[in-house]
Amino acid sequence: MAINAQPHLGLLTSNAVLMTSLLAWAVAQLLKIVTWAVVRGKWNFKRLVEPGGMPSSHTAFVTSLATGVGLHDGFDSTLFALATVFALIVMYDAAGVRRAAGKQARVLNAIVEDLNRKELHPERLRELLGHTPVEVVVGALLGILIAVWRL
């Protein structure tokens, strides 16, 4: 028996909170390219798929979601509480855990460079994993502003 996906897709695209959250994420991703170009003087479209950078798209995504849920279901709803806790965990991870992992990668890459002088060629680790607190705050403000604007 075939399942018709059309009605389900329509339900997803008519969900204003979801579509607004996706918009906040997309705007943040595009802003990463712009901020990279402003700071470094060249365009780097790989920033669309790389972690880290200004602003935090993860943070924009989840704060837009939490704000949208609050505007839609009320800031006193259980669903808003759930979305807010989820957003705080994502933001903590972006600025804390992933940033620390990026710092460790930088140190390990320096060690690898020292070892490479002896003709070893191990793979370099990705250093831009997390976000600075400023990148997280800007991502949060972006997500909230887009949710308030759209909803």
Described by the principal axes of the CA atoms, the overall outline is elongated
Q: H/E series, N to C?
A: HHHHH
Q: What oligomeric state is this? A: single chain
- Give the count of helical stretches: 5
Rg, alpha carbons: 19 Å
Strand content: under 5%
Biggest sheet details? none
Number of beta strands? 0
Can you give the helix content as a percent range?
A: over 70%
Distance between the termini: 38 Å
Return residue spans where pLDDT drops below 50 for at least 5 consecutive residues: none
Mean pLDDT across the residues is 83
Structural class: mainly alpha
Task: Compose a concise summary of this entry.
With 151 residues, the protein is an all-alpha fold.
Could you characterize what this model shows?
By secondary structure, the chain is mainly alpha-helical. It contains 5 helices and no strands. The chain has helices spanning about 5-15, 15-40, 55-75, 80-115, 135-150. α2 crosses α5 (about 135-150). The longest helix has about 40 residues, at about 80-115. It is elongated and about 60 Å long. The chain starts with 5 loop residues before the first helix and ends with a helix.
